[in-house]
Amino acid sequence: MRICFIIPVLLAAAPAGAQQEEKTIRQGNEYYRQQQFDKAETAYQKALEENPASDKAKFNLSSSLLKQGKKEEALKGFAELADKVKGKDQKSRAFYNKGVVLTQQQKLEESIEAYKNALRQDPTDKEARENLQKALLELKKKNPPKKEEKKNPKQQKQQQPKMSPKEAQQRLKLLQQKEKEVNQRLQKEKSKSGGGQAKDW
Question: Residue 200 has what pLDDT?
Fold first, then answer.
């Protein structure tokens, strides 16, 4: 599964504080590329100290936390971003990564909703669509709809009382006796009426 990672663009006319934040994020990105996720985490946290409102630093911090296996912290960060950011692209990525974390935690219903939200923001996101389908299939495997069908025959069997062979034989004899009586009655009626025509309903 894809983990989105925002590579920031340095703004030429950025104020001095923003330039320092961008520099710190770039340093974190370099650590991230080198798979030194603990150092990347530290750099992104420093960038957030410089600018607590930085969505890029928060997103990249959450990505580095996820790479280190700190799923709960990463999930919290992606969830906050999904609620907070305004841009559809950023919102879509936040929901997507939230879905990835939830899938890894086997919280399939929640991950499905996260992927749907990602697709609401960016309907062209093929990876979100694929992961949504995989999560739906996994959920279907976990909760197959055939369980209800399997219960019905069992319930029917439980409702029918079991009969011993002796009881079955007695019932069979009773049915045979009743059948004989009905046949005898029919024979008597035929002989009285002279074997008339059958009636149509």
Answer: 37
Q: Would you place residue 6 in the very low, low, confident or very high pLDDT band (cuts 50, 70, 90)?
A: very low
- For residue 113, CA distances in Å to 90, 108, 132 come to 17, 9, 9
Asked: is 88-143 a CATH 1.25.40.10 domain? The reply is: yes
- Is residue 114 within 8 A of residue 135, CB to CB? The reply is no
Tokens of 174: 């009773």
Q: Report pTM.
A: 0.63
Residue range 11-69, pLDDT digits in tens: 333 455 678 889 999 999 999 999 999 999 999 999 999 999 999 999 999 999 999 99
The CATH label, of 1.10.10, 1.25.40, 3.90.1150, 1.10.20, for the domain at 12-69 is: 1.25.40
Q: Mutual orientation of helices 126-142 and 108-121 as an angle, nearest 10°?
A: 160
Could you write out the DSSP letters of every residue in 39-95? HHHHHHHHHHHH-TT-HHHHHHHHHHHHHTT-HHHHHHHHHHHHHH--SHHHHHHHH
Q: How many CB atoms lie within 10 A of CB 96?
A: 27
